[in-house]
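hiii so um. not sure if this is the right channel but i have a protein structure encoded as tokens and i wanna go backwards to a sequence. like what aa goes where. can anyone help
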């Protein structure tokens, strides 16, 4: 005898309804919790974070390209430590930006009236 999921269309409807309810609950929970910490996301704040990610990426890449430049290809422990620190800063801000972007795209946060904002750079 096949499992009920294979033969009962009502089971599929019930599963879809449950998943929709869970998705709605997750969205509401995220809006409530994130909304307490990020009550109003502005376009300026969002773009400032994007600009910071770009600056940290540029600093990390510039440091990587300069490895061994002054020592004819030999890389020092200090250069590696600095590169690691720059990568960590870049990765953390990039992940934060991606998390904010995801929260925005999923409707967990809203951007305040964009007509009141200006580009931060």
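sure thing!! here u go:
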């Amino acid at each position: 005898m096949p499992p009920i999921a294979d033969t009962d269309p009502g089971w599929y409807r019930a599963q879809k309804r449950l998943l929709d309810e869970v998705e709605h609950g997750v969205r509401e929970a995220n809006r409530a919790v994130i909304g307490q910490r990020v009550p109003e996301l502005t376009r300026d704040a969002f773009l400032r974070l994007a600009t910071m990610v770009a600056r940290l990426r540029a600093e990390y890449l510039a440091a990587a390209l300069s490895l061994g430049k002054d020592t004819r290809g030999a890389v020092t422990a200090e250069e590696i430590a600095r590169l690691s620190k720059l990568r960590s800063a870049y990765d953390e801000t990039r992940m934060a930006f991606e998390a904010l972007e995801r929260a925005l795209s999923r409707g967990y946060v809203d951007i305040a009236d964009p007509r009141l904002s200006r580009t931060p750079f």
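oh and Residues 4-116 form one domain.
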